[in-house]
Each structure stands twice: as structure tokens, then as C-alpha cells.
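Hypothesis: this fold can be encoded by more than one sequence.
Test: take the C-alpha cells below, design a sequence, compare later.
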């Protein structure tokens, strides 16, 4: 509804019209209240929702944990990996910030669209190579180009990374990551337009005394097929479903184990005899065992000692009455 003029404003308007003066209808202070106007560049708007970034953070926290455990076993030394940051950045800015030489892998991960880029700094890459060849992670020539042998060795490490990647995404959606190509220069890794918004995941890696980074670049268009799944609700529901599936698998496994047939063997104590005595044995001869009548008989399950018992007879068959249950680490003398 339009504002209603007061009587004084009407009188001022009539006086101005009669005298031929210009009329300023703005109220005092109105110009100041409007504020300044500035242009808005739609290209600078964040394309990744906060919920999507939080979900990516959870996914790659899990990835860092799994990868650290796997590399610790693979390299036979303590490997620490943590998510340093997750931020949105233009692909061109990220690609130009990569220090070469570096291990740059173009990764396809169905059902995600297109490709993503994984960059491993030379310090981390040479630490992998040095440890796998039996040395320590202290290689200092960061500017040295990688040889074909080193690239081949690093491909095996990246294969393990893809396994951990598949597992870390498993609670949200089943993915099939694979490395399409590996380069050492950013000139050959233009996977998308330079202005494409991308999620940049930076992992800080520490091996022995060496520190470096593993960085993953996920273009915005790549997550579109799974954008609806990238939320913490899906993660929570997936976790609940995973727990339910684990319980179902556990019950099924228990049922299968209960029906599994195993071999039980009851044995006396070992008896030592000379080879000459063994060769001279005839039908009807008696063998004196090194087993006292008060000693327990050991019962083996698939070759492992599990019980001690007493021998007897029942229903015209030899039987063993269980007297003791042996623990897993208990030794039999």
C-alpha cells in the first residue's frame, strides 16, 4: 500500500507547484537507509553445499584412517595421515598451485561423473619408494624426475589407495575407483575447465621424519549423480544398515560354523623308541607307552589341542571323558 501524505506535505506540494519549483518526494534520511549497491558475480558463489562438504569430510577422515593403517603395514613403519582441510576452489587455481615434479593420477570413480585428480607430493612419493626398497624415508632430492621403475612401484601403492577409497565411500554409495593415467606434470592433467568449482581435499602425511601432502580434487560436476546421497542423514542411515547387515552376517556365519564337521583325535603322550626296536616288532608284541595310567589323554581338534580327558569304554566303544578345557595359549608338555 502506498504511503499517505500528511497535511503539511500536501501544503508543501501545492506551494511548490504554484511557484514552479522542483519537488523532491524522498523522505529525509531515506537515501542513507538504502545502502550502497554493488555488483554480484554469480561465478563466485559456492557450488558445494555445507552438508556436502561435511559429508566429504567424514568420508575422507575415514579414508585417511584406513590408508594410514594400510601404509603402516605396507611400508613397515609408522605412517600418520590426517585431513588438513577441505575447501572449494577453482580447478585452474588448484592445478597451478601444484609443485612439480609430483605424482598426478587421473582417477575415474563410477558412478561419479568424469574424472578427479589425485596429487602426491614428491617428498611423500620418494618416501614410499625408499621404504619399499628397504631404506628409510629421508630422500631429499625433491626436484629429481621419477624413473620408470619408481613409477611402477608407486602404481602399486596407488592401487592400495583405490582399495581404501572404495571402502571409505562404501557407507554412502558403492564406487569403483580406478586410475586411468599417471603423469608428473600439470600440463597433462587438465581434467576440466579452469573455472570449474572443485572440492580440494588435503591430507597431511608423515612417514618417519618426512612430511608431505596427498591432495584430491573433485570437480563439482563429478558429484552430480550422487549429490542427493552426500548428506549426513544418508551416512547415518547407511551406518545403521551396515550394523544390521553385520548382525545378519554374524548370525549366518554362526549357523554355518555350527554345522561344520571337524576331526577330533585323542592321543597318548609321545613315546621314543629306537629304530632297531621298531623294525623288530612282530604281530602280538606289546609296546610300552610313555603314558602313565593317571595321565590325561589330549584331545586335538583339527590338530590343535583343545581338551584333556580320561579314556574309558561305553557301549562297546572306546570313549574319552572330558576333564579339562585347554585355553588357546596353554602349552601341552
Amino acid at each position: 500500500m502506498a504511503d499517505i501524505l500528511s497535511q503539511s506535505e500536501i501544503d508543501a506540494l501545492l506551494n511548490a507547484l504554484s511557484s514552479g519549483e522542483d519537488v523532491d518526494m524522498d523522505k529525509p534520511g531515506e537515501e542513507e537507509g538504502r545502502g550502497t549497491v554493488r555488483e554480484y558475480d554469480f561465478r563466485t558463489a559456492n557450488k558445494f553445499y555445507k552438508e556436502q562438504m561435511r559429508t566429504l569430510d567424514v568420508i575422507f577422515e575415514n579414508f585417511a584412517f584406513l590408508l594410514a593403517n594400510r601404509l603402516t603395514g605396507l611400508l613397515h613403519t609408522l605412517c600418520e595421515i590426517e585431513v588438513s582441510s577441505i575447501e572449494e576452489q577453482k580447478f585452474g587455481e588448484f592445478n597451478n598451485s601444484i609443485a612439480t615434479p609430483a605424482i598426478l593420477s587421473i582417477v575415474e570413480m563410477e558412478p561419479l561423473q568424469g574424472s578427479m585428480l589425485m596429487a602426491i607430493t614428491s617428498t611423500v612419493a620418494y618416501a614410499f619408494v625408499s621404504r619399499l626398497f628397504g631404506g628409510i624415508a629421508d630422500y631429499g632430492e625433491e626436484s629429481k624426475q621419477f624413473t620408470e621403475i619408481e613409477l611402477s612401484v608407486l602404481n602399486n601403492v596407488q592401487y592400495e589407495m583405490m582399495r581404501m577409497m572404495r571402502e571409505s565411500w562404501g557407507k554412502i554409495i558403492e564406487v569403483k575407483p580406478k586410475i586411468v593415467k599417471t603423469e608428473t606434470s600439470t600440463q597433462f592433467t587438465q581434467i576440466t575447465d579452469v573455472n570449474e568449482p572443485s572440492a580440494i581435499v588435503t591430507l597431511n602425511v608423515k612417514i618417519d621424519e618426512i612430511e608431505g601432502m596427498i591432495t584430491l580434487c573433485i570437480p563439482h560436476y563429478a558429484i552430480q549423480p550422487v549429490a542427493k546421497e552426500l548428506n549426513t542423514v544418508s551416512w547415518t542411515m547407511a551406518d545403521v544398515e551396515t550394523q544390521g547387515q553385520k548382525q545378519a552376517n554374524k548370525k549366518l556365519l554362526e549357523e554355518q560354523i555350527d554345522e561344520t564337521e571337524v576331526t577330533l583325535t585323542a592321543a597318548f603322550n609321545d613315546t621314543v623308541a629306537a629304530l632297531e626296536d621298531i623294525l623288530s616288532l612282530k604281530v602280538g608284541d606289546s609296546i610300552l607307552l610313555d603314558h602313565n595310567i593317571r595321565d590325561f589323554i589330549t584331545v586335538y581338534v583339527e590338530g590343535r589341542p583343545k581338551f584333556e580327558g580320561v579314556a574309558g569304554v561305553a557301549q562297546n566303544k572306546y570313549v574319552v571323558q572330558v576333564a579339562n578345557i585347554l585355553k588357546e595359549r596353554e602349552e601341552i608338555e
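The chain has two domains: 50-238, 264-325. Residues 27-33 have pLDDT under 50 and may be disordered.
Hypothesis status: open.
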